[in-house]
Amino acid sequence: MVQLVGFAGSLRKASINKALLQAASGLMSAGDQLKVLAIDDVPLYNGDIEAESGIPTSVVSLKAVIERADGLVIATPEYNSGIPGVAKNVIDWISRPADDIARVLHGKPVALIGASGGRFGTASAQAAWLPVLRTLRMKVWVGGGSFFVPQAFKSFGPEGSIDEELKQRLTAYLAGFVQSI
Ligand SMILES: Cc1cc2nc3c(=O)[nH]c(=O)nc-3n(C[C@H](O)[C@H](O)[C@H](O)COP(=O)(O)O)c2cc1C
Q1: Which of 125, 115, 110 is nearest to 20 (CA)?
Q2: Measured between alpha carbons, how far is 6 from 18 in angstroms, rounded to an integer?
Q3: 139-152 tens-digit pLDDT
Q4: Among candidates 40, 41, 115, 28, which has minimal Cα distance to 71?
Q5: Among 45, 76, 47, which residue's Cα sits nearest to residue 58?
Q6: How far, in Å, are 65, 78, 119, 154 from residue 5 at the CA level?
Q7: Considering all CA atoms of the chain, what is the largest pairwise distance in Å, rounded to the nearest integer?
Q8: What is the pTM of this model?
Q9: Ligand 1 centroid vs 16 CA: distance in angstroms?
Q10: How far is the CA of 35 from the centre of ligand 1 (A)?
């Protein structure tokens, strides 16, 4: 049994990346799981908070579940061809204190997926994640190619439902990631 966890790098209720991740969690093979993590309670990183009151409870919980998980899925939006601050902020907090990076993140399999309104999906944002994940010595899964959802308004229905083509693509991608683990 493979236990994945994932977060979407958006705080929007109607986020297409939240919907993509939620759909992914429903498409796992029997016996495997993808637990969706909430990031709403993660404050903006501030070294003063860390120095004065330590790692926030919300971050401690995220670190614990990521450490236990067999792999991480990041559903990233794209802002101005890069990683939205909200998403980067989560991984920055998770990398604190630096002494915990090896235990929590080194060698952790990670898959990047993303949906955007643009023609290139989240290609630029995903490319921008690579040096971040490499710095943290995470094991980026590339075996399934890149998973983008361009012009996402065409693939998402009301209430975050996804169309059949995307469902099939996502199912195959997740199965490949699980297989690699
Ligand atoms: C500040 C900002 C910058 C954006 N830049 C891009 C971009 O570079 N490429 C793109 O495809 N979409 C861009 N978008 C549109 C997003 O893809 C779209 O808002 C998407 O719904 C955001 O993801 P979410 O629904 O998960 O929050 C941008 C949106 C915002 C608010």
Answers
A1: 115
A2: 10
A3: 999 999 999 999 99
A4: 28
A5: 45
A6: 7, 21, 28, 27
A7: 50
A8: 0.98
A9: 10
A10: 24
